[in-house]
Amino acid sequence: MLTFTIRRLLISIPTLLFISLVIFLLLNLAPNDPMAQVPLTVPPEVKEKMREALGLGQPIYIQFAKWLMQFFWIEPQVLIDHIFGTTFSEGDLRVISWQTRSPVMDIVIQRIPQTLWVVGMSYVVGILIALPIGIYSAYRHYSVFDQAGTFVTMIGYSIPPFFTGPLVIVIFAVQLGWLPSTYDTLHQVIDWDTFVVQLKQMILPVMVLALQTTAQISRYMRASMLDNLNQDYVRTARAKGLSEWTVVMVHVLRNSMIPVVTVIALNLPAIFGGAIITEQIFKVNGIGQQLIGAIYANDLPTVQTLTFMFAFLIVFFNLIADILYGLLDPRIRYD
């Protein structure tokens, strides 16, 4: 298992480098000019100096090499300096946003807690709801509960967040007035009352993101449980006199979780993608809103950095899924 993990980590390095190259080339093919936002009163010679400071006057391969150096070498040093108080990155040029003229990672660090709060909570809630529904639907397949669950989850999986978002706002915020329609990023939790406010403003965006998670994972859980409930080892376990709870929740559930764990691990980056739309709808000041704003402003360094971070999440959780596969199923050997 350790050999497999090391081998996958080594394979991930050229994969990520190739992905970063593709992202860089695609973004640089777009007709973007960061100087277009500079006021007309700025003299041309000042604009040229600003262009050189942003590295725009150099060949593409030089710009790409600089971005690699800044992202993989200088930014980790900045993190080390922040944690341990060292000065390794002092005087080094970081990845600079064309829009804000400030380091991109500083803005990401400011915004990512909001995204993690919403995305993380929605994913946990979605999984906690999906697994029991999938297990019980498989155990009582073709029952009223199973048919109703199938109908509801298919609807939830088919409706995109840009529709369910405004829909829940109209129902719960406008018509009923129970919950706020926007997310206050500046809100601080200092006592019970402020915690209740925080909880209320998280309900709608978490509901929208958790809906698709619940729908998809519950369907995978149901299909996997149904497949294992008909296996010979289940009949053998029942014939030995084991309780129904032990048969279903220990033997069947363990084997059924193998494909479901893969879906859970691989869907997490997709939740971040769905959060891009959800953050726009509920005005969550997270990295999804930052990405949309950077696209509108033709801010290539920010778009490239955030896009690469999403790609990194996909590669990383692929690795996590493979490792969990081996841990859940002892029959799997990575030799």
What is the CA-based Rg, rounded?
24 Å
What is the CATH topology assignment of the domain at 107-328?
Answer: MetI-like fold
* Second rung of CATH, namely the architecture of the domain at 107-328: Orthogonal Bundle
User: How many helical elements?
Assistant: 11
Tally of DSSP β-strands:
0
Q: What name goes with the CATH superfamily of the domain at 107-328? A: MetI-like
Q: Which CATH class of the domain at 107-328 is shown?
A: Mainly Alpha
Task: Classify the helix fraction into a percent range.
Answer: over 70%
Shape: globular
Low-confidence stretches: none
Our estimate of the beta-strand percent is: under 5%
Largest sheet: none
Secondary-structure element string:
HHHHHHHHHHH
Mean pLDDT across every amino acid position: 80
Give me the secondary-structure category: mainly alpha
Q: Give the N-to-C terminal Cα separation.
A: 8 Å
